[in-house]
Amino acid sequence: MSWFDLTATDLVPLPVVLPLLAAGLALAFARRPRVQRVVSVVALAGVLAVGVALLVLTDDRTLVVDVGNWAAPVGIDLVADRLSALMVTVSSFVLLCVLLYSLAQGVSEEAEEETSSIPVSIYHPTYLVLAAGVCNAFLAGDLFNLYVGFEILLAASYVLLTLGGTGERIRAGSIYVVVALLSSIVFLIAIALTYAATGTVNLAQLSERLPDVEPGTRLAIQLLLLLAFGIKAAMFPVSAWLPDSYPTAPAPVTAVFAGLLTKVGVYAILRTQTLLFPTDPRIDQGLMWVALLTMLVGILGAVAQDDIKRLLSFTLVSHIGYMLFGIALATQPGTAAAIFYVVHHITVQTALFLVVGLVELRGGSTSLDRLGGLAKLAPGLAILFFVPAMNLAGIPPLSGFLGKVGLVEDGVRTGGFLAYTLVVGSVVTSLLTLYAIVKAWNKAFWQEAPQEIEADARVPRGMVVPTGALVAFGLALTVFAGPLYSYADRAAAALRDGSYVEAVFPGGHDRGVGESNESVPKAGAPTGPAEGVSTGEGTP
Amino acid sequence: MNVLDTTPAAVLVLAIGVLVTTGVYLLLERSLTRVLIGFILLGNGINLLLLVAGGRAGGAPILGTTPLWHMSDPLVQAMILTAIVITLGLTAFVLAMAYRSWQLHGHDEVQDDVEDRRIARLAAKNEPSFEDADAVESGETLDEEAAATRDETDDDIGGTGDRTGGEAR
């Protein structure tokens, strides 16, 4: 294959490959920070470009790549459908903004001051590995590959969270790492059970075989997957680790974790629930209760906080409830609203954490008892905080409001006691979010400063610009909510109409390969079981 | 189609049971090193579970050396290998973290949540968890307080032009 006959499908692996290669390069140039910076920025900009291209291309058809040219059920495939492409695009934009922000802040330098002996040139490679892991999770067409994606991003997140190895970060990191390890173990158990029950881990093939599995076994697999992803997404009974660990990390790290990591969990729940277990009302009802509790417990936690970072971490947990609500509704409009909400929330939550980083830099603290009077000292900062804060609380006409309206509308349409309870719960949560956010707003920006704040502290322009870009992107989501919402609607439709399976096994469902052991002879000939798969162009 | 015997060997099932129970027990400990050992045991238990999921053991899955119906499943072996590699990397990381914790604190115990400690401290002092600024008794009536508070519509405030402008209208 020459370089000139590249096809659209060749773009699919790039969001994973580019950051990984760049991570290697950045590690090789560990002693030359300037080269490292260029490499990281170029790689993530490349991923963003690929993401946008995928966004356009996948609107027509779902792209499938058989890694190593081994066709689907035998080999591993990467699948980019509308949902994946949307997630990759938004994530890479957020990753790029946060990277630029951290370049200006110089995470490395900050950490160097604290503990001089720690090599912090690892920040860039780790960050890129995190990006690769996130993209891999979004593109995985295979349960085990999803697991690997999770592990890549988690391993990178462990390093980023404990960057510099200060006492507080090690304390928070210990809890975070142990919880994450446990969730990975649960995921692995689910994979083992799935494989034992169906003889495959390919998502498309699973969606055809799981309906024939005995209902009890299927329920066990579903619950295990839900638990594993739920821990990562911070849904209520298993969310306590999040507000404790996130705020201790450096601001850009917290921002990118808050924006992306939980959403990867939400994405995995959405993908597995719609593709593997499309109809199971028992779980949906349970998920509704979980969504309600996540919203309420999360936001009540936020109300009680007096530190902006912790407050925002609790609102993060709380708003995961909205996405779970949309997923639990199990209707196309509900799913569409959930997808829209995920996109909105990634942007807004990251922007808020970045602004809080600026507030910390300007006011010297994130504690609401020590901050004050910032509205006069830094009016620009106040605007940067106010816009995403109102967006988070769901003030009309911003995108947060639109997402919530979509959810509430579909909740009312679905009807029934539980759905109405959820509708009430989401409105109450929205109001409490407003209360919590306004409290932070009043205290940090308007109250008389309890202690002197340096009048001439400067915030580097390089940090303000990426933050501003994210805030502006959040506003753009409002302005272009129409096209985005219809895209989310089409993505939601594609999740349920079987086009995913159709794309992985074109022209015939699940051909040939039966029990796992029988797939072995076909593995001898790469084109064996699935001739005519989109990219299969003969033996390599 | 030849019927495969997928009944797992009792020894493997027993081994999984022992590894998982001891693993979970150790995972509940406070010391990070014990948690790590628990994680390793648990991980190995799950690796065995994956092995069992692949069915009965057979010959090496290489074409030409083993007849097809006698091969063991290579896919689970690949998955287990991947899981082992991941576990190895994470083990190294957790060890480093435990060591760092020992360097800093002289022990490697996982400490309580900040919030838990704060609430415990407040409970010990028997204080409310937050202070409501409006509820602080100043000893004055509301009218006195209002009179004493700065009136923002007063002159001498250059900064709040819109306010004075509003009054002029």
What does this structure look like?
The complex is a heterodimer of chains A (540) and B (169). Chain A has 540 residues and is mostly helical. Chain A has a domain at 281-449 and 460-497. Helices cover 71% and strands 1% of the residues of chain A. Chain A contains 22 helices and two strands. Chain A has a two-stranded antiparallel sheet. In chain A, helix 3 (82-105) packs antiparallel against helix 11 (251-275). By secondary structure, chain B is mainly α. Chain B has a domain at 10-119: Helix Hairpins, CATH 1.10.287. Helix content of chain B is 59%, strand content 0%. In chain B, helix 1 (10-27) packs antiparallel against helix 2 (32-53) and helix 2 runs antiparallel to helix 3 (74-105). Residues 157-169 of chain B have low confidence and may be disordered. At the A-B interface, helix 6, helix 7 and helix 22 of A face helix 2 and helix 3 of B.
Largest sheet of chain A: 2 strands, antiparallel
Helix share, percent of chain A: over 70%
- Overall mean confidence score, pLDDT of chain B: 78
- Which overall shape of chain B is indicated by the principal axes computed on the Cα atoms? elongated
Largest sheet composition of chain B: none
